Amino acid sequence: ELVLTCAEKKIDIPVPRRNRPLYSQHLSSAIICFVGGTRREIHTKFSDIVHYLGGSVRKDYGDQVTHVVSFANLGEKYLTAFNMERSEILTEDWLLECWKERDNRILDVLDNDFIRIYRAKPLHNLNLFFFGASDETEQRHLHTLTLDNGKDFKFISP
């Protein structure tokens, strides 16, 4: 797909690094930072996906970062990215979908309509605990608020 894409655009085929094949250039203009802490193996897997799709990965959030992949909306890097509002904050599902669509030359994975589907909601992968919400109306209200912000939960009675 990479060769076909480069031929269609009449550009040179980029030379991949040793031990890092290029499957497509879907993320060629993306510089991605991961936030929310995760196991090293998972971080490596997602970094490889970014590199296979022609993108770059940065350890720290900075001016050049265009997209943030959040495994959970917490930590200093997440707060910096959120407060700066320069980068899209997306779930890991975005990268998985980019990988599934690696052979689709027509799809633009950086298109706003495509990205909108995978934006991380405020409570992405966070655990919530509520104390003292015994009123049925209050519980329904809290449940609705958390669903709207990307999290489902159940009340556990003490």
TrEMBL record:
Residues 22-102 form the BRCT domain. GO terms for molecular function: GTPase activator activity; guanyl-nucleotide exchange factor activity. It comes from the Eukaryota. GO terms for cellular component: cell cortex; nucleus. SUPFAM superfamilies: BRCT domain. InterPro entries: BRCT_dom, BRCT_dom_sf, Ect2. GO terms for biological process: mitotic cytokinesis; nervous system development; regulation of cytokinesis, actomyosin contractile ring assembly. This is BRCT domain-containing protein. It comes from Rotaria magnacalcarata.
